[in-house]
Amino acid sequence: MRRIALLGATGSIGKSTLDVIARHPDRYRVVVLSANKSVEDMAALCRSHCPEHAVMGDEAAADALRTALANVPEVTVSAGAKVLDELVSSPGIDTVVAGIVGFAGLRPTLSAARSGKTILLANKEALVSAGKLFMEAVRQGGATLLPVDSEHNAMHQCLPKDSSGRPEMSNVEKIFLTASGGPFRGRSRQSLHMVTPEEACAHPNWSMGQKISVDSATLANKGLELAEACWLFDRTPDEIEIVVHPQSVVHSMIRYRDGSVLAQLGQPDMRTPIAYCLAWPDRVDAGVEPLDLVIAGRLDFEAPDLEAFPCLTLAQQAIAKPGGMCVFSAANEIAVAAFLAGTVRFTDIDVVIESTLAEVKLSEPQSLKAVQALDQAAREVASSSLAALSSGS
Ligand code: NAD
Ligand code: MG
Which protein residue's CA is at the shortest distance from atom 20 of ligand 1? Predict the structure, then answer.
């Protein structure tokens, strides 16, 4: 029986994970659920999944959850990052699903790495912001890192594994990282100034949380994923080619030195990569509709439009600088939140990332404290450039 801590339980990844887990009560047991502030959603999840612990982002949310769960005494409710660190590192947990969105997910995921857990990584921002530190923690802690992100999961599936179960890269020539192109594929930059958060979140193929949906629309998500692939598979950006594939059926590909290209195909449904990671190296039913290739019909591929979507080039430049992706990701989080709140335009997102990257003094952070300081510095710079943009100066 695998004992699981699910971080970000009320989100899109959290709910898909619980759906797969509920199909296999003989294999998986949810021991810890965490969320930020969504008390009602969390109360419902606690009633249906009966974890031993529920951890909320702050005391006020924990108090409200305690009240809501007054008649469910089996669940211990607590709050805060320290408690979450202790729980994910405890011997009672063997698997941690990192499903928190953004930089907030770094600390507990790093704790899971340091304590040698099996980590199912959806929270790409954690890896991207602290790549070197995080990968060192995985190695030193003896953790097993399995990518949930569909593209990286596809790469993992297409790679042979060495005797310790890690992906074997020696014959790999190129990785093709596929991108759907998002809801604005084919649009000019000029036409994107006035798009609304609703339009940006209406992804043609995937149903996801708001932040990653906007990231998919700007292609910042593909920039984050490029950095993610470099860390996970020990590649440089020039060994990874980004290909737009609007149908989201091929989830990524590996080209070997003999010219063979291996691809993983499937429905655009996160339960497939989640089930793969939960069961690895075995396979379990994920509840996903089988892929019908005749209905899918066509598989198209095209180059990304770097003019309409400058975030991709900005990410490529940031990856080459120490600490660059920590700043990229922090500025992006701040800008996306402002766009979702209606205070800046869609096309201001890349402007803010670019000016933040130019202004913040970059260096490779060597500790969690240093990553947090760099993230904070980037947030402050990004916030003031947003304030200037929204006041029209
Ligand atoms: P979401 O917004 O739907 O859910 C986010 C979850 O994180 C919620 O449970 C929320 O309560 C929790 N959370 C947010 N801020 C927090 C904080 N400060 N402290 C503690 N918990 C906090 O997001 P999502 O779409 O499920 O994405 C989660 C992560 O997975 C992201 O990093 C995203 O890039 C990645 N991912 C998502 C998908 C997808 O299909 N949704 C696919 C690939 C990767
Ligand atoms: Mg992805």
Answer: 36
> Does 101 contact ligand 1 (Cβ within 6 A)?
yes
Instruction: Report the topology of domain 321-393.
Output: Rna Polymerase Sigma Factor; Chain: A (1.10.1740)
pLDDT at residue 355 is higher than 80: yes
Question: 321-393: same fold as 2-148?
Answer: no
CA of 297 to the centre of ligand 1 (A): 32
The confidence band for 391, taking pLDDT boundaries of 50, 70 and 90, is confident
**Are 65 and 77 a contacting pair, CB within 8 Å?**
yes
Assess whether the C-beta atom of 365 lies below 6 angstroms from ligand 1: no
- Whats the size of the chain, residue-wise? 393
Name the percent of the chain lying above pLDDT 90. 97
Q: Quickly count helices (H) and strands (E) in the chain.
A: 17, 11
Residue bearing the CA closest to ligand 1, atom 21: 36
User: 2-148 in CATH: which number?
Assistant: 3.40.50.720
Question: What is the whole-number distance in angstroms between the Cα of residue 212 and the centre of ligand 1?
Answer: 8
- Which H or E run contains 117? none
Q: What mean pLDDT comes out for the span 255-274? A: 98
| Domain limits, the chain | 2-148, 321-393
Which whole number is the average pLDDT over 7-31? 98
* pTM reported for the whole predicted model: 0.98
153 has a pLDDT exceeding 90: yes
CB of 333 shorter than 6 A to ligand 1: no
> Which residues touch 295 (CB under 8 Å, ≥6 apart)?
none
Q: Residue 185 corresponds to which tokens in the numbers above? A: 């594929």
Taking the C-alpha atoms of residue 344 and residue 379, their distance in angstroms, rounded to an integer, is 16
Residue nearest to atom 25 of ligand 1 (CA): 209
Ligand 1 atom 16 nearest Cα: 36
Closest C-alpha to ligand 1, atom 4 = 11
Nearest ligand to the CA of 148 is: 1
